[in-house]
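Example 3.2
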Amino acid sequence: MNKEQMIALMEAHLLLNVDREKTIDNDASALDLHLSGDAYYMKQGSIKPFNKSYHEIINDSVYAEKLNKNEDTFLLEKEKCYIFKIKEALHPCIKASPIFGQATAKSTVGRIDVIARLIVDGMKEYEKFNPSEVVSGEMFLEITPINFNVKVKEGISISQLRFFYGEIEHSIINDRAFINSILNLRDDIPNDGTLSVDISNTIFHQSNNDVAAAFRGKEQITAPIELWGKDNYNPEDFWDIEKSTEINNLKSIVIERNKFYILRSRERISLPPGVCIYCRAMDETLGEMRIHYAGFVHPYFGLNRKDQKKGTPLIFEVRGHNVNVLLTQSEILARLYFYRMSMPATEGAANYNEQELNLSKFFKGWGKE
């Protein structure tokens, strides 16, 4: 559904507690979800959605401990799990509708190794809802920072929700010729919707012509990152630069165990107004490496770039597991699901449209004070 259709859902009161201007913003195929001040530390760790109401879980002292604000903010420590109630809600009457939903964390938080997963009360899995299984209509966000401590506050958005008229799978586009028209071909081989990694060195610091293939998150950083605002932090304080080398004539990079990396795709995407994308890792774990990019690409992404380049790459968020892994050029890491918009988007999101190898918006450009 596009922006106008989501507004119609609000006017029909199937979506509750929605600030119309603030919630949809310019994202042409998703609704921004906002944190309330109702927050909990999960004492037993993450609890997968199951038959028990999540409202009961967070109010059970065995599972959860209510958080208190510290000067209107919440400090979330890395490797700990938290639950926030979402301000927006689904009306229980949506149960009788043909409206389905799919969610994902925003790329701004994925790029700093924060996992944020939506829980719709009554569902038995994260990040989606089937109308027939909706109970109260309440929604919650499970937040787990991994590499950095972070701060959040009431009213910010770090997750988004798409709505579908009918089952999600029915919106998928399988026309390979169409898919190839959106993706640049990989070595002249027709692309069936997969996404591969580009680990060639590229310029990331224009004034110095510095190059990198990836950015690697620094460890032992205690200063928290605020998950709002823009250009607040010097990247040098949080990130190291990783350059690729050649092994047996293949560009390669070593993914070290327990370290977090930002990389980019070889394919460059240009989306028309009637198409959006869901990007999902080929497998949650690929050998000893976790790819936790699962995100939305909105209509107009990569279209009409100011620098005249054709299309825009997507960003991978990769974490090493127990042993080091050698990652080589063009390895396939993700699959794209192309969705047909029921009505074309009338405007598109400009965020990251010009990106190449980019960090989250929270960081300044390299070399800027």
